Amino acid sequence: MNASVLFSSEKSDWNTPQDFFNELNAEFNFELDAAATNKSAKCERYFTPETDGLAQSWAVSEGRAVFCNPPYGRETGKWVKKAYEEAQRGTMIVMLLPSRTDVSWFHDYILGKAEVRFLRGRLKFADDEGQAKNSAPFPSLVAIYRPEGS
User: Fold this and answer.
1) How far apart are CA 20 and CA 150, in angstroms?
2) How far apart are CA 123 and CA 137, in angstroms?
3) Phi, psi (5° rounding) for residue 63?
4) Phi and psi dihedrals of 60, rounded to 5?
5) 145: number of Cβ within 10 Å
6) C-beta atoms surrounding 77 within 10 Å
7) The whole model's pTM is what?
8) How far is Cα 104 from Cα 59, in angstroms, rounded to an integer?
9) CB-count exposure of residue 50 (10 Å: 0-12, 13-18, 19+)
10) Residue 85 needs a FRET pair 20 to 30 A away by CA distance; which of 3, 38, 60, 93 works?
11) pLDDT of the chain along its 150 residues, tens only?
């Protein structure tokens, strides 16, 4: 992958760095990766563009959670809305997102509805082989939807 694609708006699939995922997984015990590819999947159970995570149920076993690092761009809002809706059904969901506090999806489905953790610095997203590349050209956040009572 060349740097011009990495830093352009043409790229929408930013693969989660494995060490970053491992830290979250130790805390949340993920069962499902809701927005993955066959190469980028972080869980044994995952949805790809072909299986369309937006059209699937994200229900997981009790005590488990969903991880979602959705495609970034115009479609991000659909993924955030889906995560919010699935959380309303009692599923714990953890999303890795670009920190875009000015967009509608942030105000409609995250602000006041999810725990937000702003990441210090910029993540070094991975390529399809899992190798870390240059730092992202944007800051990131983690949004956590917890079932009521947890």
Assistant:
1) 23
2) 9
3) 80, 5
4) -130, 170
5) 24
6) 17
7) 0.88
8) 26
9) exposed
10) 38
11) 334 333 334 445 678 999 999 999 999 999 999 999 999 999 999 999 999 999 999 999 999 999 999 998 999 999 999 999 999 999 999 999 999 999 999 999 999 999 999 999 999 887 777 677 778 889 999 999 998 756
Query: Where do runs of H (alpha helix) occur along the chain?
Result: 3-6, 18-28, 76-88, 104-109
Across the strands, what pairs with 65? 30, 92
Task: Return the beta strands (E) in 58-147 as ranges.
Answer: 65-68, 92-98, 115-118, 140-145
CB 136 within 8 A of CB 121: no
Through-space distance between the first and last CA atoms of the chain, rounded to whole angstroms: 41
Q: Are 119 and 127 in contact (CB under 8 A)?
A: no
| Three-state secondary-structure class, residue 70 | coil
